[in-house]
Amino acid sequence: FEFLRCAAYAVEIGSSLRKIEEDLKESVRLRVSTAEKFENTAENPEIILESSWDMSQVDLTKQGVYKLTGTFVVPEGYQLSENLALPKAYAYLSVQERTSECTGLYT
Question: Which residues contact 19 (CB under 8 A, 6 or more apart)?
């Protein structure tokens, strides 16, 4: 299944993706449990899976809208059940050209 969270970002042509990637990693996380049915107990504690984002398709020299894909990282020492697949998360990034120095508007 897909993770139903949509984030949208806009950057100026030639900008860096570092802050966006940091924000996505910090804000998009998945809460899971070691139990078959979710519970947060001493026996089956909740685990927070951090996200990792593929930004390789973004061309910061070209105006356009790009779809970013995030996957969730299973911590060392844990593994998924055979019949379980982690969802993916998505965000959209608009690379824009600045239209005016005074207004800060983008096209």
Answer: none
pLDDT tens for 70-94 read: 999 998 988 888 888 888 999 999 9
State whether the Cα torsion 12-17-23-29 is positive or negative.
positive
Q: Quick one: 31 exposed, middle or buried, by C-beta within 10 A (0-12, 13-18, 19+)?
A: exposed
Whether 20 and 58 have beta carbons less than 8 Å apart is answered as no
What is the spatial distance between Cα 32 and Cα 46, in angstroms, rounded to a whole number? 6
pTM: 0.74
Residue 104 pLDDT > 60, yes or no? no
Nearest to 91 by CA among 58, 62, 61: 58
Q: Find the radius of gyration of the CA atoms of the chain.
A: 18
| Inter-residue contact 55 to 17 (CB < 8 Å) | yes
Q: Hunting for tokens 């910090």 — which residue is that?
A: 26
Q: Cα(93)–Cα(64) distance, rounded to whole angstroms?
A: 8
Q: Count CB-CB contacts under 10 A for residue 50.
A: 14
